[in-house]
Amino acid sequence: MAKATPTDIDDLETADLPEMDLYHPKSFLTKWVFSQDAKVIALQYATTATLIGLVALVLSWLMRLQLGFPDSFDFIAPTDYYQYITMHGMIMVIYLLTALFLGGFGNYLIPLMIGARDMVFPYMNMLSYWIYLAAVLLLAATFFVPGGPTGAGWTLYPPQAILSGTPGREWGIVLMLASLALFIVGFTMGGLNYVITVLQARARGMTLMRMPLTIWGIFVATILALLAFPSLFVSVIMLLFDRLLNTSFFMPHIIEFGEKLQYGGGSPILFQHLFWFFGHPEVYIVAVPAFGIVSDLIATHARKNIFGYRMMVWAILIIGLLSFVVWAHHMYVSGMNPYFGFFFATSTLIIAVPTAIKVYNWVLTLWRGNIHLSLPMLFAIGFIITFINGGITGLFLGNVIVDVPLSDTMFVVAHFHMVMGVAPILVVFGAIYHWFPLITGRWLNQTLGHLHFWITFVGAYAIYFPMHYLGFMGVPRRYYSLGETAFIPDSVADLNKFITLAALVVGAAQIVFIFNLIYSIFWGRKAERNPWKATTLEWQTETMPPRHGNFGPQLPRVYRWAYDYSVPGAKDDFIPQNQPPAPDEEAAPTGAPPS
Amino acid sequence: MTPFRTLGARPWMADQVRRDDMASGRRFGVPAQAIALRIFLVVATVLFSLLYVAYATRMNASTLSPSAFFCSINAFSRASSDWRPLQEPGLLWFNTAFLVFCSLVYLGADHAAAKKNTRQLKNAMILVGILSISFLIGQLLVWQQLNAAGFFARANPSYGFFYMLTGIHGLHLIGGLVFWAILTVRLFQGASPHSLAVNIRLCGQYWHYLLVVWVAIFLLLLLT
């Protein structure tokens, strides 16, 4: 940014596309079904992800029923339980969270927040959604094939994933792998779009360092996903070969029921390396957009510029970079070379530094801010607290010597649900309460919203705090029932009952939320324009909700960063990014203190 | 415009505000599809590199100790492994030649597009299609030869990798043929060579890339 020369003014066809040159839907079908408008695609992504997410929610209820009240439910056989675990994990991590943050929020917010009319490749964007839908349908189909879905656990570790004792060995695992491969192909199309749109289609004046942190989060997460998903793709294809063509990439010599299988010589650890080389960045693919969104929620609802904007950007980048060199901390007990444990423990603990910087900056943004305890703010604060809790147990598990005894216990389950289940989903909720007026022009019902927040927030702690304790007691994860085990006291059963009841209530609160969404789309109170008095471009559109093409005949021009809240001497307590500077504003620095 | 300078900007300071107000909003002065191709090539490189790593690792995997992973990853040796080297069918050399010719023809196509020579461009594009499809058919024939000789994927991990690597490489080529088909149809519908020049050049770059990947795979197969 050293030279103040405008670059390539002649070459601006993307950013300055006049409205009539845009793709225009001609019928209901091209407007709402095969739409190339990023906003519609975003809603399609979000709806699909939510629907399949509800399936995963029901599965978690069933699992909790079994754990809380073992032997009470005849319809849950051990094989069913393993299938619930597998499908719950895979759906939540990939088909819900990844798709919702990048496909949903990414599609809706990127063009609007950077001041573009649409994604750079709208057709490919549409294709991306339809391939995602096919992947989801393929996944859902496993419930109806002979043998049902795979029960291999969401990590699909061979050799057990494709042995005959594992449920869903015939069809379930094959369809699951095919569905994942499709998902990756679809995501790559969408991901290329998000990255290129951010790089090439920003409005005039919107430099990279003027972008809202939401866009930074989605941008970096997309790059992570583009680089990490190939690893999952490789492991999926190789496992598919082992399953369908009887190769031995991952399969060692195995004797099953006294019979020697034709496999031999493969390396199951190789699968784990490939899987986690994807799997750990995946955590940040979900977390980094959440970091970005929560930064914007906090700044807007505390009426204050984000503390340490540059450091927030750097932290996102450093976290993204580090997330590629920590994968084997998921494999301390796999039998890999012990020296790797030392390296990966160190790199894992280093990630705490940029993460802690982010947490401090959120708290310092709140410090002496004009905090409005609106629903988005409540969810944002809930996120910070939950993320700290989940992050701290991550420090426990990052150390080899602590991880070894805690591995495969409920402690791990509690940890990752806190840090990448509850924390990001709180941000998703906060973001929905924040942007719902923009998307629909109506408010969500606030009373139901508060009910939803408090039950979800308190309930999540009722579920997962005791679960850490169960882990310390040695209660193993993935067990259908505990049976007679000497080291597990009877009190564990009571705690399990309590957790199950809490889980049922929290799940029910999500149904209330879904009801609120559907009700408010049609009958919610009408929202005025820019109801939160936010600075970012998506609220400055001519109409709310924004029409196709996002902005009016003229694309917005950006004159400031995204965080001009409570600027001293300004008329309002916010200055939109596209508001030209007042004559006397020119010389003085804008809102933030110099750093 | 270095990344560090960009990331070091203080967007709230008055002097930076003046600089930022002049920004066009674009990061790179090349067409969006050129950046798309480059990013995709990075993604594909990650994919093929991981296949390489998997190949080397599986080749060295001891039949007894899975913990040997990564310990001898740099040595392409076959100690204590069940790995049997692949017998490369001679047909692979022909197939390689098809891809090399493809790349050369693309260079000619670039030239023709620059000189706005429609007839030459049409010929070049048709030739690319014929050569690419010949390559794919050649690869299928190799599969069939190996299978007929009793070496299907399950015969040995080396054969498993051969089918997988050639399969994934072939799928990438088929993906490229989709774009080739779109361009060729447009060309025959009367689009001017000038309007297609950028896309034809990018298509050519993709083919060059797939040639490099194929040569890397072929070398790996020959050397191990």
Folded structure, characterized:
The complex is a heterodimer of chains A (595) and B (224). With 595 residues, chain A is an all-alpha fold. Chain A has one domain (38-483, 490-585): Cytochrome C Oxidase, Chain A, CATH 1.20.210. Chain A has 14 helices and 2 strands. Chain A has helices spanning 28-33, 38-68, 78-114, 122-141, 172-200, 213-244, 268-301, 309-322, 338-366, 375-398, 400-406, 410-440, 446-473, 491-523, and strands spanning 255-256, 259-260. The longest helix of chain A is centred in the N-terminal third of the chain and has 37 residues, at 78-114. Chain B has 224 residues and is mainly α. Chain B has a domain at 90-223: Four Helix Bundle (Hemerythrin (Met), subunit A). Chain B is built from 7 helices and no strands. In chain B, helix 4 packs antiparallel against helix 7. In chain B, 36% of the residues are buried. Mean pLDDT of chain B is 88; it is low at 63-79. At the A-B interface, helix 5, helix 6, helix 7 and helix 8 of A face helix 1, helix 2, helix 3 and helix 6 of B. Chain B: Keywords: Membrane, Transmembrane, Transmembrane helix. Chain B: It is found in: Cell membrane; Membrane. Chain B: It holds the Pfam family COX3.
CATH topology category name of the domain at 90-223 in chain B: Four Helix Bundle (Hemerythrin (Met), subunit A)
- Largest beta sheet of chain A: what is the strand line-up? 1-2
Question: In percent terms, what proportion of residues of chain A is strand?
Answer: under 5%
What is the CATH architecture descriptor of the domain at 90-223 in chain B?
Up-down Bundle
H/I helix tally of chain B: 7
Q: What is the CATH superfamily classification of chain A?
A: Cytochrome c oxidase-like, subunit I domain
Note the beta-strand portion of chain B.
under 5%
Biggest sheet architecture of chain B? none
Please, how many helices of chain A?
Answer: 14
Summed over residues and divided by their number, the pLDDT of chain A gives a mean of 92
Helix amount of chain B: over 70%
Order of helices and strands of chain B: HHHHHHH
| CATH-scheme architecture of chain A | Up-down Bundle
Shape designation of chain B? flat
Order of helices and strands of chain A: HHHHHHEEHHHHHHHH
N/C terminus separation of chain B:
45 Å
- Tally of domains of chain A: 1
Low-confidence stretches of chain A: 1-20
